[in-house]
TrEMBL record, chains A, B:
Residues 168-433 form the Fumarylacetoacetase-like C-terminal domain. PANTHER family: FUMARYLACETOACETASE. This is fumarylacetoacetase. It comes from Aliikangiella maris. Its EC number is 3.7.1.2. Keywords: Calcium, Hydrolase, Magnesium, Metal-binding, Phenylalanine catabolism, Tyrosine catabolism.
Length: 440, 440
């Protein structure tokens, strides 16, 4: 059993906090969660620094470091969190992550003697702004939903939807780091080469098939040296935590450009992450078994382990809502589009780590994996509009009577995520939000 | 005419230096070159800092900064070069790059009064070690040789070698930054999933078809904001310089994994750059016309410009040699494998920049593009063993009687590059070298 799968006192569902908002029903950030972000007071010129969410507050880790309350490894970890990026803290490894989590859990609990020292370190989430939680050196996007791969494959390659390697290889490719931004960063509809099916030549055009992709983001903590392989059963030591990830996609640009070397401009104009990183340790109660039907190809040895079969999967609920400009003006609520779970993933996070390093590729603190679009087995669980609209052929009905096949200018996409089950405290991921601006 | 295409006094072929080795015939680093690297004395614990090559010496830019000789923009630029990575200098833009180049050219010329102040700032290249010249945030690999794309296409897709998008889209994909290392960094043969053509299932194996790729690396200097497009005629302002780039490839892993999202583990185990960045400005004399036959598709507007047609291409000679363990033991010279030129590229650097940003993707100082394997029109100009051995079917004869189809353990691949023509001083890129170690 690794630290990341073992329940400890920080997971106790009975724990409450002296920060009262953390104890409210359906709060994303109860004391069992304790996710990390980089923040400062909104509109200020303060230095960005690390923070931990508790209820509707941010615990300022720079202030906590100076509070005199913490000591030992936890205090050493806080020193690393007083920085505009969490890379150094992420590089410290799980002993430090766990020590800080335990210390914060104990300090924020109801009745803790820390309240007098730490109350002044809280800032309302409503009053802060975020930036990326770390410097993302390399970003790799996987393709782990077989339901997504099959649906999309049907659209791009009707005669050959699921390629023969899919059930053997955790397919992934390198994405663009520079254009990953934090929730709230709106962006312009991209332009690119598009070739209509009946046209003889491509044209330069604003994208007409702009889509979201509902993904889980996975942050690497401790890295590995070039040439060193990470064993599947050691993968958890290298996984710092998880976020929500919207990997915006220009389907028409993608269709024309993607062969033979994969998607490029169809993806690298923008990707958006939620500000909070929910730690691997916080998700321990929501791990579940990973199964591969006996009739399917079984994983090669480096992707196989008993531990991975027992609890390699994560039951993270993912939801997408769409708020159109018309809804916003009319004060109408956003319309539901998708709901699925990361537990449907064909490959686990540990398998992604083991696969990524089997050739000796080095992962570094702050690197990010995208899970790939997390579509589930039913149509309602599709994690993109490409799938929901069946390649743009079927209109998606919104609650206010509008319809969409792909995203229009002014549309705001809202992704939320949470984990919930009997016997555990519900924890949330917050949200990732961005709005499509018109092309120049 | 942009600064990068205008000849100025720094290009004068008559210039000589008081560093005598710079004046020798066939010297890679005459005073007309002045390339940048990050270095320190070999085996020391000195701080890595910027250096400029002159003859067989490195001008220590940290020492030059402190010499009291330089002033104005050049001195400001030197301050940025006194750092373990050149990103801040690269971000300063072409006014600063040109000012420093001119000041260094004047200071290092025969008869300059700087000799007494700067002679002490020189360190023999034989006595230094290098690291990457900058932090490479994102690395994009293009695919700009139509000869390479056609030859490789034939091997991977016999019925469909050159895809319909090739002549319209400067095809590129994102590569791995973390595993790019500087010349001299040996690496282990990668392992990965391989499926033999007649096998029903893949196996995990050490790569059996390990290859080099002879590429030009292009470093971005000044970046662009997310959402901003770089016009093709402004591209030169964003291109800091060029290096030699060996993008090692595991052909058997590639064949099995690359569909539908492109190469991944087949490439990201190692890439190797030469230590020296030859600046865009230094290459001005070696620009040449870029042509697209009238019978071929003409570029879309954003990829088209008169300036690009006039001098968008670069005549950079690229050569690969192979030194086997047996040659090394016997003291035999390395054996010639490939010789070609970057002028054969189907797309220019300016077209790569314009294409990469047409969707608003942001480039950042220190980002690198690979040109893609630079194979020329004839078989002898093929830039990879995959092509030279026709997919492994034909043995490559080496000078000492050995043969190869792909690389073996102990093989050292040496790439060199240079520019040479009537009326200009020959300038060189130095070399990029690495040796294949056995898999674990």
């Amino acid at each position: 059993m690794s630290y990341a799968t073992t329940l400890n006192e920080t997971h106790d569902p009975q724990l409450t906090s002296w920060v009262n908002s953390a104890n409210e029903e359906n709060c994303d950030f109860p004391i069992q969660n304790l996710p990390f972000a980089i923040f400062r007071r909104a509109g200020s010129n303060e230095a960005f620094r690390g923070g931990v969410a508790i209820g509707d507050q941010v615990l300022d880790l720079a202030a906590a470091k100076n509070s005199g309350y913490f000591s030992g490894i936890a205090q050493t970890a806080l020193v690393q969190c007083d920085a505009p990026e969490l890379n150094a803290f992420m590089a410290m490894g799980q002993t430090a992550w766990s020590a800080l989590r335990l210390a914060l859990s104990q300090a924020l609990r109801s009745g803790a003697d820390a309240e007098s020292k730490l109350a002044g370190c809280l800032i309302a989430q409503d009053d802060v702004e975020y930036q990326l939680p770390c410097r993302i050196g390399d970003y790799t996007d996987f393709y782990t939903s077989i339901y997504h791969a099959t649906s999309v494959g049907k659209l791009f390659r009707p005669d050959n939807p699921l390629l023969p390697n899919y059930k053997w290889v955790p397919i992934g490719y390198h994405g663009r780091s520079s254009s990953i931004e934090v929730s709230g960063s709106d962006f312009k509809r991209p332009k690119g080469q598009i070739k209509a099916p009946d046209a003889s030549e491509p044209v330069l055009s604003a994208c007409k098939r702009l889509d979201y992709e509902m993904e889980v983001g996975i942050y690497i903590g401790e890295g590995n040296q070039l040439g060193d392989i990470i064993d599947i059963d050691q993968a958890d030591k290298h996984v710092f935590g998880f976020c929500l990830f919207n990997d915006w996609s220009a389907r028409d640009i993608q269709g024309w450009e993607y062969q033979p070397l994969g998607p490029f401009l169809a993806k690298n104009f923008a990707s958006t992450v939620s500000p909070w990183i929910v730690t691997n340790e916080a998700l321990a109660p929501f791990r579940c078994a990973w199964q591969r039907d006996a009739a399917e190809p079984q994983p090669l040895g480096y992707l196989e382990s008993e531990q991975n079969r027992q609890n390699g999967a994560f039951d993270i609920q993912l939801e997408v809502q769409l708020e159109t400009a018309q809804m916003r003006e009319a004060g109408q609520p956003a319309s539901h589009l998708s709901l699925s779970s990361f537990r449907h993933s064909y490959w686990t996070v540990a398998q992604m780590v083991a696969h990524h390093t089997i050739n000796g590729c080095n992962l570094q603190p702050g690197d990010m994996f995208g899970s790939g679009t997390q579509s589930g087995p039913t149509h309602e669980e599709a994690g993109s509009m490409l799938e929901l609209s069946i390649g743009g052929k079927q209109k998606i009905e919104l609650d206010n009577g509008e319809t969409r096949t792909f995203l229009e200018d002014g549309d705001t996409v809202i992704m939320r995520g949470w984990c919930q089950k009997e016997g555990a405290k519900r924890i949330g991921f917050g949200e990732v939000v961005a709005t499509i601006l018109a092309a120049d």
